[in-house]
Amino acid sequence: MKLEILPDKAALGAAAAEAGAGAIRAAIGQRGEATIVVATGASQFEMLDHLVAAPGIDWSKVVAFHLDEYVGIAKTHAASFRRYLQERFVDRLPTLEAFVAIAGDAPDLAAEIARLNALIAARAVDVCFAGIGENCHLAFNDPPADFDVETPYLRVALDEACRRQQHGEGWFATLAEVPRDAISMSIAEIMRAKRLIISVPDARKAPAVRAAVEGEMSPLHPASVLQRHAACTLFLDRPAASLLRAGAPA
What we know:
This protein is α/β, with parallel strands linked by helices. It is built from 7 helices and 10 strands. The chain has a single domain (2-236), classed as 3-Layer(aba) Sandwich (Rossmann fold), CATH 3.40.50.
């Protein structure tokens, strides 16, 4: 795990996007195509703004998969992650080869998960963009996370800390409105990506960052699993890095 500590969110987003764009260009140059995973949430705003504007990417050769989505939320809902990515990513890239979205409101969720698993099984993920939750979750794998399940996508229960974060960030008017389940990419599938770009701004994430970087690797702190990925970079702003001890690994 490598750390890059930036002065603010804007610099964090620019640096994370530049690193991810470089990996996408390299994959296209080597194989003529790239597969990426894109995430949502407040941590991804600035990164996505810079990524869609990155020069030299032939987006017609890129397939993007969706990291996670609430169960029971329609694409039109203000908190829908499909809507978020459609507006902030897909609509801004008219030549994108494909966007594989998670239909969290599908009438048959088992069939939807099977569809996603079949599609991603046929590809190797070049870059996965993600963040870390206030409870140290990775995607919607809340603690205690399952590090061993091999299924690429699965249905998961959201813990109260996760649901409070979604409410606190303003995605839902009340805590009661936050769904209790989601479809999420599994820890094992995230770790199979060749390159991980993890964007984590804000002081409220500082305890989770400390647990992920300096704590023991444990399902109780799901993002701590990133310690064992050979090509993972955490992009932090100074508030998010504020609880790391001096001399933390770089």
